[in-house]
Amino acid sequence: MSEAIIELVDLTKKYGEKTAVNQLNLSINKGEIFGLLGPNGAGKSTTILMMIGLSEPTSGTVKVCGFNSTRQPMMVKKRVGYLPDDVGFYDDLSARENLIYTARLNRVSAAEAAVRADSLLERVGLSHAKRQKAGTFSRGMRQRLGLADVLIKQPEIIILDEPTLGIDPEGVREFLDLIRTLSRDEGLTVLLSSHHLHQVQQICDRVGLFVQGRLIAEGTVESLSRELFAGEPLLIEVEADALTDDMVEAVRGIEHVLRVEREERRLRLGCAQDVSPQVARTLVEQGAALTGLTKKQYGLDEIYHRYFEGSDSNDREGSKLAGLKAKAARQGT
Ligand SMILES: Nc1ncnc2c1ncn2[C@@H]1O[C@H](COP(=O)(O)OP(=O)(O)OP(=O)(O)O)[C@@H](O)[C@H]1O
């Protein structure tokens, strides 16, 4: 049976009139990689701060590793490593010296600190640079050193805030592989807050979608996809040199096309079955020159797009979002 390592119950945080986190209920299991997703200002950072005991909830409770983060913050801090999007190091110290310094702050003996530092530098692929000053590190190297830095106290949970920001694609791939391996090999629980849907989809076992302080959906990418796109298992994306309203209407009329979204010269079609030949033929008959046609199953990109359609800031609310918020309010979530 799965064991909850993070438990949020009716967690609420208000800043004056502003409700940053609104009655959040969430359970994260030991060894799970959980993705926190949501637009800016959705309440992700506030939730993380309450989890690690750096912010006090207005009401509700947060328990991490069995400890109440508000009443026993030191117990929680011992067990949780937090990697912010830009880690601060002593730039004049070497990578190894920085790690040993952090270990010593966490009351690890000098001998043990050296052993852990060497082993972690190897683990994150920085052995070759361990005597190099942290100030000379590239962004990707700094993030890998950051990961070693949060792991040196041997936490049970690591929380990563946009950890791959500014890293090149190869570096991102390596970094994500490393996180996945750590979780699988050592049962480490990982909480990843990110806007990079593709990356989240690659490594997270489960994701939670936050909007305006509420968790509006949570589950595996497959279950969210099933929930949102029932009856529309296939997405066809088609691009043409130009699209007219008549063309869009003609495509809408094709059997098994259930939903049509238009984005400049691109159409996204939610379909009950593969009708790409009919779509291509219809557009060509209408005088369009096709510049691209792809088929895919729904992923996190489409899920996110669906949920956050028209809501790229706190102040704009699309109808979909308004509907979901109403649903969330009815369910009291
Ligand atoms: N110290 C504070 N005082 C007042 N309001 C705050 C404070 N911290 C956060 N907020 C507000 O609470 C809301 C949630 O902010 P939070 O930083 O948790 O969002 P987020 O999802 O982490 O956003 P981002 O993706 O931009 O980091 C926002 O409206 C923000 O302006």
UniProtKB/TrEMBL annotation:
**PROSITE patterns, from UniProt?**
ABC_TRANSPORTER_2
- Span of domain ABC transporter: 6-237
On whether Transport is a keyword of this UniProt record, the answer is yes
What are the coiled-coil residue ranges?
A: none
Q: SUPFAM superfamilies from the entry?
A: P-loop containing nucleoside triphosphate hydrolases
Keyword Cytoplasm tagged: no
The record's Pfam families line, in alphabetical order, gives: ABC_tran (PF00005)
Read off the Gene3D superfamilies from this record. P-loop containing nucleotide triphosphate hydrolases
What GO annotations for molecular function exist for this entry?
ATP binding
Domain of life here?
Answer: Bacteria
Annotated segments matching region Disordered? 311-333
> Which CDD domains would you find in this protein's record?
ABC_DR_subfamily_A (cd03230)
> What family does this chain come from, according to its entry?
Belongs to the ABC transporter superfamily.
Stated name of the protein? ABC transporter ATP-binding protein
**Organism the protein comes from:** Paenibacillus residui
